[in-house]
Amino acid sequence: MSLFAGGTPCWAPDGPAARGGVDVPSLVHGRLGADVVVVGAGLVGLSTAYHLAERRPSLDIAVVDAERPAAGASGRGTGLLGPRVGPPVDQAARRHGPAAARRMHQASVEAVRHAVDLCARLGVPCADGEQIVAARSRTGLASLARQAAAYRALNLDVPVLSAADIRQRVDVPYQAGLLHRHTATLDPAALTAALARACAAKGVRLYGGSPLREVRGGEGGEAGEGRMPELVFPHGTVRAPQAVLAVNAGVAGLGVPVGTVLGVEVHAVATGPLDPEARALLGAGGGPAVIDAVPLAPFFSLTEDGRLVVGGGTALLPDGAAPRRIAVLRTFAWNRLEQWLRTLHPALAGVEITHRWAGRIGVTADGLPVVGPVRGRAGVWYAGGCNGHGLAMSVAHGAYLSAALLGAADTPEPLPWHRSRAPRLPVSGVTRPVLRACLAWTDRTARRATWPELGPRR
């Protein structure tokens, strides 16, 4: 597959590591059974299976993927492991109240710790660091001010950084920022792969090449013999008392009432390993990841081997669009990220771009994920819609689901995203151009806020 036309991430998700170090899974053939069936071999699905097997080793668990482990969004992220779930903290406080907003932030911080600990247990390299949510435009600075006030009001330790504070960490002239300590960067495909290996070692059955076609059963009350969920795949079925649909925006068209989780395509590029001077300017190996406070604005981080990864920018609504048009828009999005990258510092003007890739995220109207039982479908659970903040939270969602499915006494108290459905959005027919127009407007806003030169240098 070509680096550019194929959109291969810099962690090469088509390599053996991304398959989890196990044989390519077999198809679902015939009528199969299990105690729990998980659809989706990404981070949420494999984390659910892993934590279930840890809690109750005797369970017969099957994981089924449309392709193979790490083939989807979990193998195509930018590797930022940071504390964010749902809307910004000031919006969370207004919508859900101060107590809930504080718990939401603390849960996301704990999710980062849990993911780092999991990486250590599974032997996945994970580079500790910091994340800075920064701004250089009026729009971004206003957003930072609201968030900083909310963090202070909630007594949360998220310091404000001045322009000088940021320049001490990374030589890019942002005007202000908020510092998240104890974050990390990692290869998301490697973590997904390690989870697949660990699941296989615990006796979890892995199946690939089997897209979910239909969810039968589970209607009405408790899941009994006649109502037990049965999942239909092209060449067979799996029947189980408990079914977890960790399929993100792939839930559309299955007739499962979880509201609207929209599939949106986002983009990233990566350079080859930078020379020592350029690495030092960006913080070297321990440099922070820098995320702009403006939605859809580009962000950047350094990988452990010294590559610069830039993500964000133009987001696309690919469903229903002609393949040729998607290819053109994809190239446009990648070119813009490359141009933006070169504005970060003169030392990056001639750096080689070696990788371009795209991936889909699940987006909800209120910015919150959906993690919980499907209403009216006994025994069926769903998880998805992390809105681009899913690396740490996907692992946490799996841990939560494993406890909830077993009715464990230590199941955490529900948070606002532990719910049965997201708000509904009209996404077909004449409304689809409206959604595309909204994405284009957000993109223009981000471009106005971030595209000009970053300002005078020392």
UniProtKB/TrEMBL annotation:
GO cellular component assignments: cytoplasm
The protein's name in its UniProt record: Oxidoreductase
Gene3D superfamilies referenced in this protein's UniProt entry, alphabetically: D-Amino Acid Oxidase, subunit A, domain 2, FAD/NAD(P)-binding domain
Pfam families named among the record's database cross-references: DAO
Domain FAD dependent oxidoreductase positions: 35-402
Cited InterPro entries: FAD-dep_OxRdtase, FAD/NAD-bd_sf
PANTHER family in alphabetical order: FAD DEPENDENT OXIDOREDUCTASE DOMAIN-CONTAINING PROTEIN, SARCOSINE DEHYDROGENASE-RELATED
